[in-house]
Amino acid sequence: MANTKPSLSTWRALQQSGMSERQSSIALARALAHFYRAHALMLYSCPGWTSYLGTHTSRRAVGGLFGTRNHYACRATFGTNYSSVLDLVRGNRLQQRLSHTSAGGMQRSCATRCGARCVATASQPAVPARAWSNVRGRISGSSYHPSVCARASKRFDANVAVVLGTQWGDEGKGKLVDILAEQYDIVARAQGGANAGHTIYDDNGKKYALHLVPSGILNQAATCVVGNGVVMHLPTFFEEIKKLEEAGVPVEGRLLVSDRAHLLFDLHKEIDGLREAELAGTGKQIGTTKRGIGPAYASKATRNGIRVCDLKDMDLFADKLRKLSIDGEKRFNEYGYDVEADIAAYRKIAETVKPLITDTVEYINSAHEAGRRILIEGANATMLDIDFGTYPFVTSSNPSIGGIATGLGLAPSKFDAVIGVVKAYTTRVGAGPYPTEIFGKLAEELREIGREYGTTTGRPRRIGWLDMVALRYVSRINGLTHVNITKLDVLSDLDEVKIGVRYRAQDGTILRSVPADLETLEHVTVEYETVPGWKTDISKCRKWEELPLAARDYIQRVEDLAGVFIQWIGVGPGRDAIVEKPSRGLC
C-alpha cells in the first residue's frame, strides 16, 4: 500500500471483512504509516497513533515505525488550509515539511509556521473516524493541535508558549500568565508599553496592577524580560518595582531590560495629549490612553528615537533628547515639556537601570538553546493591531504573533503553543467600530458585574457579545493552538446568552472575515445564535464537571465555532478561580 493512500473506505472495507473496530484501526494506521514513510513525511507520535498501533503508551515504537531514531524528532506539518487530518486522508495535497527537536529541547526548524504538530501524552484507544472528526480547527502555526493531544493537566507541555489577546484588550491575559509562570523559567514582554494594564492576584488575594513589569513577577523562580519591542517609560517602570518591593515581592536580580528597547519620555505623553485634543475638535479622536505610546513608536519609525543603550553615554543622550524635543516645540503652541528637567532626572535613572540592561536577543535565544522554558506575554490584543486591527482605532504596535517574534528576536518556529485569551463577552475602550456592542441596561449591568473599567485609564469599557467572526479572524492570523475563556461567571445571571456567528453586509452578502474598510464594518448586521443561560453561581467551580450543563454547552459551542481547543475557563478574579477543561479528542 506504499503507493496508494489509504482512506476511510479502506477502513470500512477492513471492518466489513470481519475485523473489529480496533483491529481495523490498527491495520489502517499501519497502512498510513507505511504510506507516509514511503513519501518521506514523518508524523510526530501522539496518543491516537500509539493506541492504533497497539503500543498504548510507547512513543518510541511510533518513532521507530516512521524511520527515526529519536521519537521526539518526528513532526508532521500540514498545509495551512487543512481543517483536519480527515482532509489528509481524503487526498488533499500536503506541504511536506520537517522540523527536528533534540532531547534537550533545542529546536531546529526547516519549516515555516505551516501546520499542526502532535505532541504525545498518555494514550487511550480510539478509532480513526472519531479521531479525525475531532481534529478540528483551521490549522496554522508549527505547534501541536490540542484537540488531538492536549490532556488537562497541571503542567502545560510547551517549552515556549505565547499568550495573546484576541479581542480589544482587557481579556485577562495577566491572570493566565501569572498561573502558567510557575512552570516557566523566563517570562517576557515583547511589545506595547504602559498602555497595557495587566491585573494579577497573589495567593492571599492581593491585587497587583502591572503596566510594564511582566506578569510572571510573582513567580520568584522566574526571570522577567522586557524585550526590544516594548517602549519603556522608565519612571513608570521603577514606580511599579517600588510598589512590588513594598508589597514584599522580591525583584532584585529578576528583571532584565533590552538594550534595544526604545525609551518613552514625558514629551511623548505631552504630544499624545495635545494630538488627542486637536482631534477632539474634529470629532475624530482615537481615544488613546495618553500614555505616549503612539508618539514613542513614531519616534522609532522616524529614526530619531532614543534607546535604552543610549543611557550608557549621558552626554550623547542629552543631545538626542534636546533634538527630539524640538519637534514638539515646533508642532504645538501649548507644548510645555521641560527637556532640561527630564535630562537631569534621567541622569539618576540611568544609574538605576544600568544593572538591568541586557542583550535580551542573545539571552532569550541562548536560554532556548539550553532548554529553558519561556513564557511570552502579549500586551493589548490583535483587534488593536496596527496592521490587522480596526485601523486607525488601534494601538501603535503589533500585538499579534509577528510582533512577538520581532519584539523579542525569537524565531516563530520556536513557538510551541500560541494561547488566545478570550473574554466570554467582549469589551472595548475608546472609539472604533464594535459590531456586537450591547447598549442600555444590560450593558450597564454587565459593566458593573464585570468591573469593566480600564486598568490604565479608569474609563468605562464598552460591552458586547462574543464575536466569533473576529475570533476566527484572529485565530487564523496567530495560529492559535489553545484558548482561555475568561469571566464566564459574569454571564451567570443571564436568562440567555448570544454569540455573534456571522456578519452580513448592507447588500446582504455574508462576510467571511473582518473587513478592512471601516465603513463596511460599521454597518454590518450581526447574526446571532442564542443559547440558554445557566442562572447559577459558578465562581466556586474548579472542575469541568462542576460547571452547569448550560455553561459547558456554551463553552463547547464556542470551541466548535472557533475550531480551537478551549483548555481554561475563568470563573472569577482569584488566582485559583479557573477550570481546566479535558479534551474530548483522542485523549
From TrEMBL:
<comment type="subunit">
    <text>Homodimer.</text>
</comment>
<feature type="binding site">
    <location>
        <begin position="487"/>
        <end position="489"/>
    </location>
    <ligand>
        <name>GTP</name>
    </ligand>
</feature>
<protein>
    <recommendedName>
        <fullName>Adenylosuccinate synthetase, chloroplastic</fullName>
        <ecNumber>6.3.4.4</ecNumber>
    </recommendedName>
</protein>
<comment type="function">
    <text>Plays an important role in the de novo pathway and in the salvage pathway of purine nucleotide biosynthesis. Catalyzes the first commited step in the biosynthesis of AMP from IMP.</text>
</comment>
<feature type="active site" description="Proton acceptor">
    <location>
        <position position="170"/>
    </location>
</feature>
<feature type="binding site">
    <location>
        <begin position="455"/>
        <end position="461"/>
    </location>
    <ligand>
        <name>substrate</name>
    </ligand>
</feature>
<dbReference type="InterPro" id="IPR018220">
    <property type="entry name" value="Adenylosuccin_syn_GTP-bd"/>
</dbReference>
<keyword id="KW-0547">Nucleotide-binding</keyword>
<keyword id="KW-0150">Chloroplast</keyword>
<dbReference type="InterPro" id="IPR033128">
    <property type="entry name" value="Adenylosuccin_syn_Lys_AS"/>
</dbReference>
<dbReference type="GO" id="GO:0004019">
    <property type="term" value="F:adenylosuccinate synthase activity"/>
</dbReference>
<dbReference type="InterPro" id="IPR001114">
    <property type="entry name" value="Adenylosuccinate_synthetase"/>
</dbReference>
<keyword id="KW-0479">Metal-binding</keyword>
<keyword id="KW-0658">Purine biosynthesis</keyword>
<keyword id="KW-0342">GTP-binding</keyword>
<dbReference type="InterPro" id="IPR042109">
    <property type="entry name" value="Adenylosuccinate_synth_dom1"/>
</dbReference>
<keyword id="KW-0460">Magnesium</keyword>
<comment type="function">
    <text>Plays an important role in the de novo pathway of purine nucleotide biosynthesis.</text>
</comment>
<feature type="binding site">
    <location>
        <begin position="570"/>
        <end position="572"/>
    </location>
    <ligand>
        <name>GTP</name>
    </ligand>
</feature>
<feature type="binding site">
    <location>
        <position position="303"/>
    </location>
    <ligand>
        <name>IMP</name>
    </ligand>
</feature>
<feature type="binding site">
    <location>
        <position position="459"/>
    </location>
    <ligand>
        <name>IMP</name>
    </ligand>
</feature>
<dbReference type="GO" id="GO:0044208">
    <property type="term" value="P:'de novo' AMP biosynthetic process"/>
</dbReference>
<feature type="active site">
    <location>
        <position position="300"/>
    </location>
</feature>
<dbReference type="GO" id="GO:0005525">
    <property type="term" value="F:GTP binding"/>
</dbReference>
<feature type="binding site">
    <location>
        <position position="170"/>
    </location>
    <ligand>
        <name>Mg(2+)</name>
    </ligand>
</feature>
<dbReference type="GO" id="GO:0009507">
    <property type="term" value="C:chloroplast"/>
</dbReference>
<feature type="binding site">
    <location>
        <begin position="195"/>
        <end position="198"/>
    </location>
    <ligand>
        <name>IMP</name>
    </ligand>
</feature>
<dbReference type="Pfam" id="PF00709">
    <property type="entry name" value="Adenylsucc_synt"/>
</dbReference>
<feature type="binding site">
    <location>
        <begin position="169"/>
        <end position="175"/>
    </location>
    <ligand>
        <name>GTP</name>
    </ligand>
</feature>
<feature type="binding site">
    <location>
        <position position="395"/>
    </location>
    <ligand>
        <name>IMP</name>
    </ligand>
</feature>
<keyword id="KW-0436">Ligase</keyword>
<feature type="active site" description="Proton donor">
    <location>
        <position position="198"/>
    </location>
</feature>
<dbReference type="InterPro" id="IPR042110">
    <property type="entry name" value="Adenylosuccinate_synth_dom2"/>
</dbReference>
<dbReference type="InterPro" id="IPR027417">
    <property type="entry name" value="P-loop_NTPase"/>
</dbReference>
<feature type="binding site">
    <location>
        <position position="380"/>
    </location>
    <ligand>
        <name>IMP</name>
    </ligand>
</feature>
<dbReference type="GO" id="GO:0000287">
    <property type="term" value="F:magnesium ion binding"/>
</dbReference>
<comment type="pathway">
    <text>Purine metabolism; AMP biosynthesis via de novo pathway; AMP from IMP: step 1/2.</text>
</comment>
<feature type="binding site">
    <location>
        <position position="461"/>
    </location>
    <ligand>
        <name>GTP</name>
    </ligand>
</feature>
<feature type="binding site">
    <location>
        <begin position="197"/>
        <end position="199"/>
    </location>
    <ligand>
        <name>GTP</name>
    </ligand>
</feature>
<feature type="binding site">
    <location>
        <position position="197"/>
    </location>
    <ligand>
        <name>Mg(2+)</name>
    </ligand>
</feature>
<comment type="similarity">
    <text>Belongs to the adenylosuccinate synthetase family.</text>
</comment>
<feature type="binding site">
    <location>
        <begin position="170"/>
        <end position="173"/>
    </location>
    <ligand>
        <name>IMP</name>
    </ligand>
</feature>
